[in-house]
Amino acid sequence: MTFLALIVGVIFYYLWSTDNPVQQDGWYTRWQSTVQGSGLSEGLAVLLVLLGPVLLVLWLLSVLDSILFGLFWIGAAAVLLIYAFGREDYNTFVAKYQHFAKSGNLEAAYLSLKDSLPWLQGDEPPVSQLELHASVRGALSYEGYQRWFPVVFYFVIAGPAGALAYRLLHLLDDINPRLKQRCLHVADWLPTRLTVATFAVVGDFSGSRAELVASLGDLDRPSADILTAVGRAANGAPDPDESASPEIQGAEMADDVASLDALMSRSVGVWLVVISLFELFS
User: Checking phi first, is residue 98 left (phi over 0); if not, alpha (psi -120 to 50) or beta?
Assistant: First the structure.
């Protein structure tokens, strides 16, 4: 039943695109406000904010499991999966950056994405074109990853409640930012490594093997850095020529982001094939 729910959820998620009626987060904002106003410590508040909805979902799914041969369970699981997928329009971000990059106006590209991609909001703004591109590419790498790969990973190994818990962690307000970041780092550790291993398989394996092995042994390295490093190596993409004209630089940077998008798409396909084969032969 999990596999059927996965297929239904993926199909409807891509059909709806940005007009997704399932991804409404007002209830979660109200729930967080209620918990924060209860006077609990920050640690207990975070625990309750995350576990409350997850435990409710687990109870609901257990009730639906025996109704109409599990059809209601499949429907509810698909809805939860759709809700757990990423919110932002990744494809629009890629297209927007490519447009500005090709025109040589990378600063406009950076500013247009800065408010939409929280992973792009660092303490210090980039001081060069190459640094700006590296920042955007890292943010797009993590955005493309977190919207799909860890959600499917936790859906498969922990069910709909696992996928929901991952998304709720991302949607968590800054009750305790350091705790949130530590939890995300732990939650991302394994799906990040599986994703970059997929990058290596669908890309240049020999060229990305060293970066892949290094990522497996570095427990503290941020996920965005790993995704960027292995993704670039898997694509075999050289750094944009710093001495080239802005137009040539911009074209190279646009191509670099396009290759990242293609790598993500191929990896999504591989995950779906592997999950399908596992379901078929298990």
Answer: alpha
Q: Which residue has the higher pLDDT, 268 or 130?
A: 268
To which residue do tokens 């435990």 refer?
Answer: 55
For the chain, the domains span 2-89+142-237+260-281
* CA-based torsion, 240, 245, 251, 254: positive or negative: positive
What tens digit of pLDDT does each residue of 217-260 get?
Answer: 888 899 999 999 999 999 886 666 565 566 677 788 888 889 99
How far apart (Å, rounded) are the C-alpha atoms in residues 196 and 142? 11
Helices and strands, counts by H and E, the chain:
12, 0
248 Cβ contact list (under 8 Å, min separation 6): 241
Model pLDDT for residues 171-209, shown as the tens digit of each residue: 998 778 888 899 999 999 999 999 999 999 999 999 899
For residues 48 and 40, the answer to whether their CB atoms sit within 8 Å is yes
Measured CA to CA, the distance from residue 274 to residue 117 in angstroms comes to 30
What's the burial of 27, exposed, middle or buried (CB within 10 Å: 0-12/13-18/19+)? exposed
Burial class (CB in 10 A: 0-12, 13-18, 19+), 12: middle
